[in-house]
Request: fold
Amino acid sequence: MQTHVVIIGGGYGGLRVIESLAKHPNITLTLIDKHPYHYLQTEAYGYIAGRFDIRDIAIDLEQWCHGFEKGVSFVHERAHVIDYQSKKLQTDTKEISFDYLVIATGAQTNFFSFIEGLREHSHGIKKLERAYKFRQKFEDLIYKQIQHKIPLQEEINLAIGGAGLSGVEVAAEMANSIHTYAKTIGERTRKIKIHLIDASETILPGMSSFIIKNTHARLQELGVEIHTNTFIASLDKEFIYFKDGSKLHYHFMIFTGGIKAANFTHCIDGTKNKAEQLLPNEYLNIGERSDIFAIGDCVAIRDSKGEILPPTAQVAEKSAEYVAQNILDRLYNKEPKVFDAKVSGVFVALGGNYAVGEMFGFIKVKGYLAFLLKKAITYAYYLGLHLRINTGYKNRIQTMKKRG
Ligand SMILES: Cc1cc2nc3c(=O)[nH]c(=O)nc-3n(C[C@H](O)[C@H](O)[C@H](O)COP(=O)(O)OP(=O)(O)OC[C@H]3O[C@@H](n4cnc5c(N)ncnc54)[C@H](O)[C@@H]3O)c2cc1C
Reply:
């Protein structure tokens, strides 16, 4: 008898569940996503700054699902409601039955309502369309500088609200592009200033002093203006107003200062935190249902010591691998273990061929070596996706040929 596992969300967590379960002959899998692509958010910084292309950060999910020998189908629809009694999921046009359900719907930018004008005048990069628009704006500015269309005395301020991992990476890569462009297309590009703003005392709050110190130094070297202990009070079309009474004339603002769970969690009963993330039990089950799991950014996941793990692709993948094993244990009548995971390392891309990183708490690297290590990790992920995509492409061509 086949067991049907339904996964909502084709992000880092969702795809890892499928990779982990697809080889089991008694399991069929259905992936549901409101978008037709997998968005590699972790590479968004390079895309925005023009270092990567769209093909480097978006993968077609249908093609990816075709890359499995059998038993993986894709539904390009938004999931709406779970019927717990009948074990069915309602999507835009379908009702899909499941034996096990994995919620992996990720997170969205949290445009805090207490900052007036934030939602109207700033942009998140948790969505591909936003990253695309921001890249266009950035390119447009560079283009205008090449054309000498912006008066020489005019300074253009690009603001990034939130100096966590994503904000820092975007700031560094853009500043590095400006630095590089200044050599090739002229000093005028240096009139584009990157401002990294955070209310905390330091950039990368919560990270180690090694990471913070070296990141700070690199950002300064790239000419990023760092504003810590700086509270954004409000925004209008032209200015960012700070709580201390000062203001900044800005051209464009990205907000990376907070996340909240994707809207799907609204339809789920059970306890949630302020960021609307689900609070699962130690088996990552929701509402004590042993057949419904939640993983990745849409949940607040704790390790065995009760510490909340950061919302990263790494944690999404670890929770996905755990849930896949839990489902297999249940199928084979084994007692599943409780969830436990550690963050094995962190690498921060800091523009060009420079990064800072730490692994297992004691390996600390910076510069080109850290860049190579980060690249190797990204490349391994990317290669896995592309092997699937290539097989998916071949499988589709063969099916089409057979059909004539
Ligand atoms: C710029 C940037 C840099 C980052 N750098 C790093 C890094 O270096 N290392 C790291 O580990 N992490 C990094 N992160 C964080 C990482 O990207 C996230 O933690 C990760 O994407 C979470 O994976 P997920 O599977 O939970 O959700 P996501 O990857 O966000 O995927 C969720 C999926 O669910 C789908 N979905 C949502 N709602 C519905 C619905 N109702 N119906 C159907 N589908 C739905 C979405 O379309 C999406 O495809 C970075 C993030 C950003 C923005």
Remarks:
- Residues 240 and 248 are 5 Å apart (CA to CA).
- The longest strand covers residues 3-8.
- The domain at 3-109+259-343 is CATH 3.50.50.60 (FAD/NAD(P)-binding domain).
- The chain has two domains: 3-109+259-343, 118-255.
